Amino acid sequence: MMKAFSKGLLLATAIGSFPAMAAAQDATAEASSDANGFGDIVVTSQRTEQRLQDVPISVTAITADEIQTRQVNAPTDVARLVPNLKLDGVTGGSAGLKAYIRGGGGTDGGYVMSEAEVALYINDVYNARMQGALMDFAEIERIEVLRGPQGVLYGRNASAGAINIITKQPSDEFTGNVQAGYGTWNERRLKGYISVPLSEDGKWAASFNGIVRARDGGRQYNATLDKKVGKEDFKGGQFDLAYKGDVVKARLNLFYLDLNSDGQWSVNTTTNDEGKIVPLSGSYRTVLSPVESDTRVKQKGGSLHLSADYPGGTLTSITGYSEMDDFWIQDFSGGYPAEDPQALFVRSSDSQQWQFSQEINAAGSLANGFVDYVVGFYYFHENGDQIVDTTTFGFPSRTNFHAKTDAWAGYGQLTFNVTDQLALIAGGRYTLEDKSLNADIGGDPAVSRDHYKKFTPKLGINFKPSNDVLLYGSYSVGFKSGGYNGLASTADQLAEAFKPQTTDAFEAGIKADLGSTVRVALSGFVNKIQNRQESINLGDGGFLIENYDITIKGLEAEIAWKPIYGLQIWGNGALNDGKYRNVPTDASLAGNTPPFLPDYQATIGFDYNFDLGSGKVKFGADANFRDAYYSTADNAAIGAVTSTQIVNAYVGYDVGPWQFQVAGKNLFNQINWQTGFGFDVVNPRFMTDPRTVLATARYSF
């Protein structure tokens, strides 16, 4: 622990020294600052447009240029760009996503009752199911990652944070691009975007973007079936129709995605003579299961944004709808024994889900700007059905789920601008949730009806000694309602809802532009969580959800520095500490360390470009360092994840309307795993991606 802390402290000190280094630059660097400085990034993380450096919360904004240059092709790629964010695939099927912010997340994302502590939004619409979240992106304008409880403005299941993906709106000019790519495992991709004005005044416009992507097997090799596995086929599209009037604005967004892959492949493990856990097959890239894995996901939906300006403010309506079909099957045992592998723990899931949400909010100013306000109402409805078939050591069982959720919330936040430098914030959200479950395990019924309510306040103070420096402090409360455990072994366990959890969060931070070439954000936080919902391994393929109190505290830093024209050095890092509180000595997690909370995490990288001929050369790299951590609350050795050091890089050439780039991830081919669990001889781990390379050519018009 002390060794890890020392490494993290050294790294944080190095990051923190950048401003001093920048201040010592000579006049040449200062002279180029105007041309080489940071522009303003406008975000909507507080439901109104603000400069990123004026937002008094821990939020990272990833721009369209960064998404393109740094090869952010899927949500999992975002994690290295944001401190204290971890994104993994789920263990059931290959299409789901597990998101963790500051140690808060969720582990059973493959079930229709599953709800993470990190809320995923697409164009401000909450996406309850993360099974389809590993899709390739459409044309993205920016990604905003909010760290810490967002209990007022985002509310539902945002007790650890929120991720908001904002896609590009139609333009009032004819524009577009087409991109082709080729990469590892014979990956082929074709992606395009086109935007067309529909009226002479430019107020009406439409856009369409889509992607077709496929890759062959090769991520792993199945020695039992004698075939390469990891094949994927994906296609998706998005249509936008926008009206940009002087007073009224509207945007209709429709999307569709279809993923077909040969699924997730578990790697069974064993303990060797040295007491070390090793793959039964001899390699994490070799699997033994005799059962074919499969994942198929189809999702479609849309959203309608309407807004109207009135004197001093804007009234906004956000309507969202989506439906999804999700199927997966896999052998969690990975095949045992090595000589004649058998499938000992096979599970399949077939689910359908649909959701509807409606939000109305008003934002503006009163009393000549003395008060800025955001007030709103939110409604959410979800229906989900799922059939899960499991065969454990030859014994089959079936679980049927039907789950329904209705949630209502009213919220408001006021910012009192006491002076030009001092502002006070007060806000709150009142949430009501009704949940119901009609299920059975092996024919035994599990029926429950539950109601939850909670008021989550926020208080804050902002001080701006200058236009380029913001100091802020806040107290807020996050809430995640109780629910049902899809991994239960018995009907009684399933029908007994686990308790809701609340988070009392304290945070202080500083954001500053030091000159025009250094941008820094530092924050410290303490999260006191009551009734944290933790998964407990029962040792038979099932899990319980138990509630524990926990305190998590940490420091986070983000830095960007442009010392000379064309060069940017950037980095982020976090130091964390977490402990369970008030745990009885006979409790399941007595003496354990909270999961998904490494002592330190950091990324440091650079981007550089220079003119060459009629075009521009660009290249860059980043290295991500993460300390070892436990991926399961029971702290079992099978779920312990070793420290990682992942290096990524790219090189490209832009000439006229063309952009050429070759990018590599995990260049040193570090083979690791994201999690693992075990019972009897079933001890699977789940491998993260090895080295991949992708070459792309993009033409813009």
From TrEMBL:
Gene3D superfamilies xref list: TonB-dependent receptor, beta-barrel domain
GO BP: iron ion transport
This protein's UniProt keywords: Cell outer membrane, Ion transport, Iron, Iron transport, Membrane, Receptor, Signal, TonB box, Transmembrane, Transmembrane beta strand, Transport
SUPFAM superfamilies documented for this protein: Porins (SSF56935)
InterPro entries hit by this protein: Beta-barrel_TonB (IPR000531), Beta-barrel_TonB_sf (IPR036942), Plug_dom (IPR012910), TonB-dep_rcpt-like (IPR039426)
All copies of domain TonB-dependent receptor-like beta-barrel, residue ranges: 249-667
CDD domains in alphabetical order: ligand_gated_channel
PROSITE patterns (alphabetical): TONB_DEPENDENT_REC_3
Domain TonB-dependent receptor plug per the UniProt entry, residue ranges: 52-162
Membrane topology label: Multi-pass membrane protein
Entry protein name: TonB-dependent receptor
Organism: Novosphingobium guangzhouense
Lineage summary: Bacteria, Pseudomonadati, Pseudomonadota, Alphaproteobacteria, Sphingomonadales
